[in-house]
Amino acid sequence: MKNVLVVGSTGQIGSELTMALRERYGNAHIIAGYIPGCEPKGELADSGPAAIVDVTDGTTIAETVSRYHIDTIYNLAALLSVVAEAKPRMAWRVGIDGLWNILEVAHEQGCAVFTPSSIGSFGIETPHDHTPQDTIQRPRTIYGVSKVTTELLSEWFHHKYGVDTRSVRFPGIISYVTPPGGGTTDYAVDIFYSAVRGEKFICPIKAGTRMDMMYMPDALRAAIELMEAAPERLKHHNGFNVAAMSFDPETIYNEIRKHIPEFEMTYDVDPLKESIAESWPDLMDDTCAREEWGWRHEYDLPRMTADMLEKLKARMA
Ligand code: AKB
Q1: What percentage of the chain has pLDDT greater than the value 70?
Q2: What is the CATH number for 269?
Q3: DSSP 201-232
Q4: pLDDT tens digit string along 128-145?
Q5: Which of 76, 119, 247, 282 to mutate to test the pocket of ligand 1 (most atoms within 8 A of CB)?
Q6: Same domain as 154, residue 206
Q7: What is the domain range of residue 221?
Q8: Would 265 disulfide with which of 148, 201, 242, 280, CB 3.0-4.6 Å?
Q9: How many domains does the structure of the chain reveal?
């Protein structure tokens, strides 16, 4: 039986991943790690145990791992790309010093560790179309620099100490549950909220700028399935490309208009977000994930849009 610690359990991915893991392995086996001020609420709080785990304080990680006999850590503590540019020192402290603390505890107490990387680990020199698994990674954002470091540091702990570290490069994640905070791909979530509220959407990304995106249920499955994959099948361990769909603002706008024909969108391009978006892949090649651990996405743009609109309308009613 697995005992899992989710670090950053109240964030965009963490809140849904904690619930998905509880459904799979049993509520009592999944510990929701949180920092003071970001306490779990509602179903997340009521359905299972929680503990204060601050990645910048290794003792809180070590104590929780030991107390709950944790064998797997999902480390979701990170600042997203736009916020990280405004708070680079903090982004490094949480993303990299925090990761070091987690990996050290994992080494000492024998845990496997999942720490997501991102399309943000690529840069302008990376081939943008069908971005290969192993290619140039020269990002110019602190977020990207920390994600490349995340991949390399996780690999180093794996080769040096045998820690079972694994990760995927997540695209922009779209969900109707917890809103994202401070990412470049957030527009692809915000557009749904405007559409459902009957408001005009002002898009911060230029028409024609494509990015990889993924619906949350696929993202959760990717994280869980990679951690469950038989180790002997894995040639890579960290930084698996995982893809599901790729679109620009016009494409998602037109898809939403199939359901809400009166929906309107205009542009007010944010130079920082646009420059980050242009440096990221248009579409990643995820052949290695498909071959090494059987990754398959289930949601394409039409299926995700229909589901998002239905679920968001129900939540906002
Ligand atoms: C962001 O936009 O910062 C994130 C990401 C793609 O890693 N959603």
Answers
A1: 100
A2: 3.90.25
A3: EEESS-TT--EEEEEHHHHHHHHHHHHHS-GG
A4: 999 999 999 999 999 999
A5: 119
A6: no
A7: 4-171+214-241
A8: 201
A9: 2
